[in-house]
């Protein structure tokens, strides 16, 4: 696998583990065979875009982030990355393999701006190696299948407690198997999810389905950390707040501020180490 392909495989592994399905069961719920999924999840071949979308559907997860990773991997796989970014002073190459790929898929005319955005997404994920832990072996619940274990990066969290305050949970590798404290759907249709990492001793919020100008803030009784939705690309994937120090018994609170001037702030709370499966009603401010 290339460096561009690895984050996609990690994300697909995460989704597959989340479904709790065996490869055979996954094949029954999608248009792709068990052997195909084995190749996709082991990085032996690049899955079709539709396969990524179907896995997101089965896992009941937004497709924005996995599809962004697929775009990066696909451009490298087909050779289009070299077409978009030639070496300085050199003529722009057009590899025959890239030409064949464009002819087969009808992908001619992709915007270079999209590649820049996707490269930024990859840099964010790869920089902290937050997703690579999903390359660890995952035993199939039904068939006893085991996928190869390989982790080229350190998977240890990079902060704990107060040292995590305000920092990125993905870059600091706190997003490894976090607890989901609660998930809340706002009046605008956006989702806000409170997460907690016992290993990092910190909590944060992630949001998706948002609009430009929306803002989410989180606190666990100390400083408040927020993130604003600034671009169209932000609206199509997960966006994370900074972390707040938390421990068992802490109450974590997230507030959603919609972009619209007449929209009311909505807040949700959850208690660490308690099974928070429902959200409090919105609390207008």
Task: Please characterize this protein's 3D structure.
This protein is α+β, with helices and mostly antiparallel strands and 285 residues long. The protein is built from eight helices and nine strands. The strands form two sheets. Strands 1, 2, 3, 6 and 7 form a five-stranded antiparallel sheet that branches. Strands 5-4-8-9 form a four-stranded antiparallel sheet, with no helix packed on it. It is globular and about 50 Å long.
How do the helices and strands line up, and which of them pair or pack?
Layout: H1 6-19, H2 23-29, H3 34-41, H4 49-59, H5 64-78, H6 80-84, H7 96-105, H8 112-128, E1 179-185, E2 191-197, E3 202-208, E4 215-219, E5 225-228, E6 239-240, E7 244-245, E8 251-257, E9 266-271
Antiparallel strand pairs: 1-2, 2-3, 3-6, 3-7, 4-5, 4-8, 8-9
Short note summarizing the structure:
It contains eight helices and nine strands.
Shape: globular
Helix content: 25-40%
Radius of gyration: 20 Å
SS-derived structural category:
alpha+beta
Determine the mean pLDDT: 75
* Poorly predicted residue ranges: 80-154, 275-285
Q: In what range is the share of β-strand residues?
A: 15-25%
End-to-end distance, in Å? 50 Å
Query: How many beta-strand runs?
Result: 9
What is the overall number of helices? 8
Order of helices and strands: HHHHHHHHEEEEEEEEE
Q: Biggest sheet, open or closed, and with what strands and sense?
A: 5 strands, antiparallel
């Amino acid at each position: 696998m290339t460096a561009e392909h690895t984050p996609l495989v990690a994300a697909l592994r995460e989704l597959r583990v989340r479904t709790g399905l065996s490869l055979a069961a996954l094949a029954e719920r999608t248009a792709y065979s068990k052997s195909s999924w084995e190749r996709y999840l082991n990085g032996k071949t690049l899955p079709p875009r539709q396969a990524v979308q179907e896995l997101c559907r089965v896992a009941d997860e937004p497709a924005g982030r996995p599809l962004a990773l697929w775009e990066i991997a696909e451009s490298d796989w087909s050779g289009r990355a070299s077409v978009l970014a030639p070496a300085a002073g050199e003529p722009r190459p057009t590899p025959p393999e890239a030409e064949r790929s464009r002819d087969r898929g009808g992908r001619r005319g992709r915007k270079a701006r999209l590649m820049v955005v996707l490269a930024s997404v990859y840099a964010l994920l790869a920089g902290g190696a937050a997703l690579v832990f999903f390359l660890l072996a995952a035993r199939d619940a039904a068939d006893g299948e085991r996928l190869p274990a390989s982790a080229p990066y350190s998977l240890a969290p990079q902060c704990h407690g107060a040292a995590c305050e305000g920092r990125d949970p993905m870059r600091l590798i706190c997003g490894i198997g976090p607890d989901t404290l609660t998930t809340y759907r706002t009046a605008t249709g956006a989702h806000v999810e409170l997460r907690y990492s016992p290993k990092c001793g910190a909590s944060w919020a992630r949001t998706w389905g948002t609009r430009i100008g929306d803002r989410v803030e989180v606190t666990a009784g100390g400083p408040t950390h927020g993130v604003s939705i600034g671009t169209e690309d932000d609206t199509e994937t997960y966006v994370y707040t900074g972390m707040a120090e938390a421990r068992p018994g802490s109450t974590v609170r997230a507030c959603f501020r919609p972009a619209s001037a007449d929209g009311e702030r909505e807040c949700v709370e959850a208690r660490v180490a308690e099974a928070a499966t429902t959200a409090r009603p919105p609390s207008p401010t």
